Structures are given as C-alpha cells and as structure tokens.
Amino acid sequence: MWTPPDKIRHAIPPARWPSAEEAAASRWFSPIDVGPCRLHARTWVPAMVPWRASDDGLVTPDVIAWYARFAAGEPGALVVEATGIRDVPSGPLLRIGGDRFVPGLAALVEAVRAASGGRTRLFIQLIDFLAVKRRPPPDKFFARFLRVDAGHRRRLAAARGDDRWLDAPEPELRAHLMSAEPGLLKQVLTDRERRELDYGYRELVTDLDLPHVRDLPRVLPELFAAAAARAEAAGFDGVELHYAHAYTMASFLSRTNTRGDGYGETLAGRARLPLEVLAAVRARVGAGTAVGCRMLGDEVIAGGSDLADATHFARAFAGAGMDFVSVSKGGKFDDAQQPKVGEAVYPYTGPSGYECMPTIHSDARGPFARNVPLAAAIRAAIRADGRTTPVVAAGGIHSFDQAEAILAAGHADIVAAARQSLADPDWFLKIRLGRGAEVRRCKFTNYCEALDTQHKQVTCQLWDRVELDEPDLARSHDGRRRLVAPRWRR
Ligand SMILES: Cc1cc2nc3c(=O)[nH]c(=O)nc-3n(C[C@H](O)[C@H](O)[C@H](O)COP(=O)(O)O)c2cc1C
Ligand code: SF4
C-alpha cells in the first residue's frame, strides 16, 4: 500500500472513556432519524467487504457470523458490504442481482436483528462496477489483445523512418512491437493501450463505442431499483447506493467523465444518472425503506472531482430526497499501484486509496478524523439549503471524545468507524455500558486492508490468533485464523 513520502509514524492518541451516565447523555449515543428509520444512536459501521460470500455471490454461514458479530455491539446502523446488483458471475462478491439471493439475505437480516436485540438498523450497499482484467503477459498483449490499426502503422513507420510498416504483414508488426524498446512503444501505442499493457484492460464509463457502456443510463436505474426491491423483500431497513470510490456511479460523477451523451461533461450531466437511479429506487421501494448513498468528498486524483463538485452533488441528492449522505474519500483505480503480471489492479493501493483508509504512517495531519472536513463542508452546504439530510463522517475514528467533538461542532450527524469496529465489534456497547477501558483499540496499520487487497478473508491482527481452541471455531481457508472476534465476556 502507498504511504506519504515524508511519512511520520503517529501514535494512537490516548483515549478517555465516559461513564455509562455520560454516554447515555451524549450526542453520539442519542437517536437520529435517517429518513423513515430511527437509529437508537449515531454510531455506524460502514460497509466493509470481508470476502465471505460463496463463489456464486450467495450469503454463507460465515457472512452471517460476520454481521451478527458486529450487531452484538449494537451500533445504530450497520451497512452490509458492497453487493453486486447484476446477475453475473463476479467471484466471492456478495450479490443481489436475482431473487435467488433473497433467502440468504433474509437470514442475514434475521441474524442481525437477533444479535442486536432489534436495536441495530441494517442497510445494504448496492454496487455496480465495470470490467477489469488482469495485467497481461506482454507476449499475449501484443499477439492477441492489441487491436492493430492504421494509426499504429503510421506511428511505427514515422518512428522507425521506414514506410514498409504501413502495409507490413500484421504478425510481423506485432512481433516487432513485442520486442521493441519502451521508447518506441511510447510513440506507437496510445496512452490507453500502454495502460492496458502495464495495468490490464479496464472499461471506462466514457467507452461509448462499447454498446453495454453506452447503454448504462438505460439499464442502471432498473438494475438498482430491482436490487433495492429485493433488499426490501429480505427485510433490510434501507439501501446505500454506492456512488463512491472506483465504481460505475462514482465514475459518472467524476470530473474525468467526458461522456458527450448528456450523462457527462457538466456538473448537471455527471449528476444525471445518479439522480435517475435515485428516482428509480425511490419509486420502487416503500416509504418505510431508507435510501441513501455513499459518495466521495474528494476523488484525490489528477483531474478528478474535488470538494466543490461533491458539495454540488450532495445538495442535489438531498434536494432529490436522499435520506442520508455518507462521505468517503479517494479509493480510485486511476492512481493504483501497478499489479504483477497475471494480477488485477486494485483501487485502494495508491495515494487516493491511502486517503480512503489512512494509516498511522501518515503526513503531518495524521490519519485520525482526516476526512471529517469534507463531511463538514458537505453538511454545511446541505443545511444552507434548509435541508436536514443526515451526513455520515468516517475515516480514522477511534474514540468517544473524538466522535463527540465532531457532533458538537456540527461537522456530521452520524460518526462511523470501520476499522475500529473490526478491531472491537463490541466497542459501542462497551462505551455505552461505561466499560470503555476494555475497548480493544485499532492500530490503524491496515493488516485487514492488506487481506482485502488480496481478496483474502478479512480479519483483524488483534484477535485472529486468539482462543483458537474454541470448539467449532470457523477458521480462514488456511486454518490459521479465526474469522470473527472472540466473544466479549461481560
Ligand atoms: C477491509 C475493508 C473493506 C472495505 N470495504 C468497503 C466497501 O465495501 N464499501 C465501502 O464503501 N467502503 C469500504 N471500505 C472503507 C470503509 O468503509 C471506511 O470508509 C474506511 O475504512 C475508513 O474508515 P475507518 O478509518 O473507520 O476504517 C472498506 C474498508 C476496509 C478496511
Ligand atoms: S487489522 Fe489493524 S487496522 Fe485492521 S482493524 Fe485490526 S488493528 Fe485495525
């Protein structure tokens, strides 16, 4: 994973924990309405992919155990991981693209209700994504994937000063490029082709020559709406439309979206499909189901959207009836690290990925509450329009005082913690009971995220080797790690 060049190793700040009485009177543990849903507290576990679904995208006993474990800590809301809305094979990524996924998801809902005593509201994050292929071996790229055209011939002839390349047999041209020096490839291949060679093929929302990409505005509202209806049928309290990070909807919102078909270029054009998806979802689910989104306060990539764009979009979403806006940052493909040959590029490995899940190896600002200013600005803009849409802040949240200060300052309405909740799924409950001193505190070094990057079952270094002799313990595929945190014995 990328770290800032002048990194400083930050210490985890000491934490003061409140008594049960102070917690009960606090902002963080006070209720809030998220559209039609009342949260008993403003505590929130954001989406985290744990790589526990079956290869067909179905809920497994391990998926259920993962969410039940978070629910035992009774957060105000728990968001189920990014879940694919299409009925297409996508490996062990949870899916909701067909009715056969509903029974498993309904069992998950039941398990969360039981484990939280009905206190935790359960949302599911709905995602669409475009194709990403593994980085090809160069010989395969030049022999098969490169689509040779007159432009390649012209540029090669000019670079070599040899017109023979204008009509040389294609196999000869391919072989020549395969053994060419990088300088020549720079002259002959397009930027896109060089990226495909170095990082693997990746579809973009601007690929209007691809019919299925051109058709995204026609098909996505219905796909999202059908997925939301299934979530409602399974018993979820709401859906979180995934408009953040590296995926299709964030790419529509991005300043890099130059689609010329009315779904790009301008702020209004870029927001059009996300608003149409919201309208379709709203029309399909009942009034009792919350519909919110996760979006980026800043893409943190060259030429990408920044806070000004995000504020504009959040105001538009709030105006169109979004029930909550959960603010994240970065997490893009554009600046991701180069994968090894045979592996696929992963969006959380570059500087923008760092901003999404910052570690203690940080710059002078450090990782803690690093992204709160984005949520604060977005919230202020929504409030200036006279709207009360709750805004969720996340990123480096690790203590009661920190969350309380964010709420007191009006920087967010709900304070979320992903990694701290993974480190200790009981931490909200411990704080509420006045037993904060027992919280197992996250180290913010991203052992968990390294597992995620490799699509391995996500666990936490603080508990995955503990009490391995527990009877009937579910373990990782290699048998070495437990899959959920040990039970907290009160
Ligand atoms: C293992 C892992 C998986 C994640 N998966 C998702 C995801 O599916 N959807 C999403 O929006 N964010 C995802 N995130 C990002 C978190 O929701 C959160 O925004 C980020 O970790 C920063 O918050 P934190 O500092 O409290 O961990 C993931 C984070 C981790 C560590
Ligand atoms: S693995 Fe590390 S960063 Fe991840 S939750 Fe555990 S302590 Fe925190």
TrEMBL record:
Pfam families: Oxidored_FMN. The keyword Glycosyltransferase does not apply. Residues 224-435 form the NADH:flavin oxidoreductase/NADH oxidase N-terminal domain. Transmembrane segments: none annotated. Keywords: Flavoprotein, FMN, NADP, Oxidoreductase. One of its GO terms (molecular function) is NADP binding. Its cofactor is FMN. The keyword Cytoplasm does not apply. This is 2,4-dienoyl-CoA reductase. It comes from Nannocystis exedens.
